[in-house]
Structures are given as C-alpha cells and as structure tokens.
Amino acid sequence: MTGEAPPGPRRSHGRIAIRPTLRPRDLMSATPELAGAWRAKVITLFPEVFPGVLGASLTGKALNEGLWQLETIDLRPFGEGRHRNVDDTPAGGGAGMVLRPDVLDRALREAAEGTPDQRALWPVIALSPRGQPFTQAMAQALSAAQGVTLVCGRFEGIDQRVLDAHQILEVSIGDFVMTGGEIAAQALIDATVRLIPRVLGNQASVEEESFSSGLLEHPHYTKPVDWDGRRVPDILLSGHHGHIRSWRQMQAERLTRQRRPDLWRAYCATHGRDPDGDREL
C-alpha cells in the first residue's frame, strides 16, 4: 500500500453518554478500548450497518455500559488500486467474484489480537453458508474468550488461501444463503453477548432457555389465566415447584422429540436414553 492513503480511522462502540436527542445516537465514533470488556471486531464492506439491532434493547444497554465493545474495520480501504478493488474473478472460471486474499490479509493483520497459539482467547471466524453450524455451545465458548474477529463474506466467497493462512473458522447460522455476512455477524454477536455476565441480569433465564440443556425450551404462559377460552395449564397454578419442574421437563422433551429429532438423539445419547423408546412424552 506504499504511496496510497492509509485506511481511515476505525469505528468503534463502547461506553458513551446518554443524552435526549431527536437524532439517532452516533454509536460509531471512536472510543478508547475498555479494559476487561468483551470485544467484537467486524471486518466488513458495510460498517455503516453496525451496530444495527445490537444497539437496541439489552445488548445496546450493555454496549453503553461498557460490558462489551464493538469495532468495525472497513475492508474497502485495504483494496487494490485507485478504485480499492477487494474482489476478482474466480480462478478456473465461473460466475460471481471472490474476495482477494491479499486484501483480506491486510485487514486481518490490522485486526490481529495476540499470537496464533492464543487463538482460543481470540478466535477469527468467517460467516459462511458452508461453515460448521453455529450453536449455543459455541456462543458460550465465545463469551468466555477475550473477544472475536468476524469476517463478513460477500460475493461468491473468500479465497481459500487466506482462510488457511489465518486458520479462520467458517461458521454458518443456517442452511440458507444471504447476500453477505453482516446479518449473520450480528446474530452471532447477539447470541454471544447475552451470555456475558450482567448483560441479562438474570442468570437463571440463561440456564433454562432452549439449547442450554440440550433440549428446546418448554412452553411459557402468563396472565390472564383464561384468555379467549384457553387456560394456563393447572399444574403451573398449583404452586408445587417439584411438579412444575417435572412438567416443564416433559414438555421440553416432547417438543424436542417432535421438532428437532437431531437434538433429541444427541440428548438421549448423552443421558443414556433410547430415542425410539416407548416412553410417552
């Protein structure tokens, strides 16, 4: 990049003052690194779409309070030539364009944290439909790390050489294809940030929700007790916590068996159960 303008300043989120205003808050102004805060770095061609939904509700509140920090790294300034090209045609022919390895390498070096042998403390992930499925267990592992660097893919994909060189883990949020990885990155960050202590404020709710025990979550009810002829199950009004706990467990097992046979088989294997047994759920 000799002779060319260096990349512009990175945009980050962190602890900011809250003031009444008729204009949207500027969460993208540069802020100092917050000591001890979990951090997410996002390499993207569209830094303006962040924080997006992450700036709202509990994740936004936690962002303002400094429980976590978001930094976007614009990929475009690392591009080649006058037009800052970041992609090129696929070797061997074919439709679409592929992100160049030299361009992405420069951005990754700018975002680098720690040494390669410290990758567990700061993983680098590319959002990709061909990646391994994102799970609650992965979110829990990421929340225990110092932070994560996310690469938002675009076009047909990323040159395999830079994925190999930086030992980037490819992760998918589902069996479908989107135009880019920005929405997937926000989903991954949201699922991870909510597991950081003090973000939700009620650790019990985290422990009881879907996937935390390997099962889908049981049904929920609230007031009124009778709504449009549909009543809250009597067991939930009994005040007998042991019976309520058993009922919720059975409902979680029933839903998991019906809706997610894959999760049900894994749960049964872990708990020594026969997934095809005759037990009435």
How do the strands and helices of this protein lay out in sequence?
Blueprint: E1 11-13, E2 38-44, H1 57-64, E3 68-74, E4 87-88, E5 98-99, H2 101-111, E6 124-133, H3 136-143, E7 147-152, E8 157-158, H4 160-165, E9 169-172, H5 182-193, H6 203-208, E10 226-227, E11 230-231, H7 241-259, H8 261-271
Parallel strand pairs: 2-3, 2-7, 5-8, 6-7, 6-9
Antiparallel strand pairs: 1-3, 4-5, 10-11
Helix pairs in contact: 3-5, 7-8
What order do the helices and strands follow?
Answer: EEHEEEHEHEEHEHHEEHH
Radius of gyration: 23 Å
CATH homologous superfamily annotation of the largest domain: SPOUT methyltransferase, trefoil knot domain
Relative helix content: 25-40%
Estimated share of beta-strand residues: 15-25%
- Classified by CATH, the class of the largest domain is Alpha Beta
The CATH topology of the largest domain turns out to be Alpha/beta knot
Q: What count of helical segments does DSSP give?
A: 8
Q: Which stretches of 5+ consecutive residues score pLDDT under 50?
A: 15-31
Q: In order across it, which strands form the biggest sheet?
A: 1-3-2-7-6-9
Shape: elongated
For the record, the count of structural domains works out to: 2
Largest sheet: 6 strands, mixed
Q: What's the N-to-C terminus distance?
A: 64 Å
> What do the pLDDT scores average to?
87
